[in-house]
Write a structure and sequence with these properties.
Layout (H helix, E strand, L loop, with lengths): L1 E4 L6 H13 L4 E4 L4 H10 L11 E4 L2 E4 L1 H12 L9 H16 L2 H6 L15 H21 L12 H15 L6 H11 L2 H12 L14
Parallel strand pairs: 1-2
Antiparallel strand pairs: 1-3, 3-4
Helix pairs in contact: 1-3, 1-7, 4-6, 4-7
Length: 221
């Protein structure tokens, strides 16, 4: 199996695909490409056969190709068992699936205003109202998941799973942009940030030499 990902410092969708692969327990080869500038455009033109969507992440499993991080996670769940990603309880699983789907399709203001940038910290920012609405909604989801189903551990549904994989880049954003959160959310973010896989990703991001200037600018309210 081969997983093609973008810059670890900036590519939030690559982080989700990579964490999904780690959660599967399957061995895989990792190929990192720089998604910025002419180099990325050249890679896409030259690698059409391995990057059919022109985006990352992309998983190759023999002759099977899967793009989009959610599709990758679902494919891996079919191979290793869905219980590795989703809660066994019906109510918990239903909420986890809904949260992952909402994260996959929503929160556009947060994505655009606060792109993932693991190496950077911004202080004293005034975020636009639309972004604040996204943040409040995310905190509501975290609070409900933790209160209803989080008794078995420090993660959203107790043990590390699909919902944590999909909200891991949000944790990174909240840290980068110094988003103030209540105590329960701070404890959850710490658990995600200190997870061994997350720390491995963060270390690699800090060692990257690529800099994408458009993601280094502090957002304006």
């Amino acid at each position: 199996m081969k997983l093609i990902i973008g810059n670890k410092n900036y590519s939030s969708w690559s982080l989700r695909g990579w964490l999904a692969m780690k959660q599967s327990g399957l061995s895989f080869e990792e190929l990192t490409v720089n998604i910025g500038g002419e180099e990325w455009e050249t890679v896409k033109r030259q690698s059409g056969e391995i990057m059919p969507a022109g985006k990352v992440p992309i998983l190759w499993d023999g002759e099977t190709v899967i793009w989009d991080s959610l599709a990758i996670m679902e494919y891996l769940g079919d191979k290793v068992g869905r219980d590795r990603y989703w809660p066994k309880d019906d109510a918990a699983r239903g909420m986890a699936r809904s949260m992952v789907a909402e994260m996959h399709s929503s929160f556009l203001s947060l994505r655009r205003t606060c792109p993932m940038n693991i190496r950077t910290r911004h202080d004293g920012l005034q975020l636009p109202d639309e972004c604040k609405v996204d943040i409040v909604r995310i905190l509501q989801l975290w609070a409900e998941a933790r209160a209803r189903f989080g008794q078995g551990g420090p993660f959203l549904f107790g043990t590390f799973g699909a919902a944590d994989i999909f909200f891991a880049p949000v944790v990174s954003r909240f840290i980068t942009y110094r988003v103030g959160v209540p105590g329960f959310a701070e404890a959850y973010m710490q658990a995600v940030w200190e997870h061994e896989w997350m720390q491995s990703w963060v270390s690699a991001a800090e060692d990257e030499q690529w800099v994408l200037e458009q993601y280094e600018i502090a957002p304006a309210a």
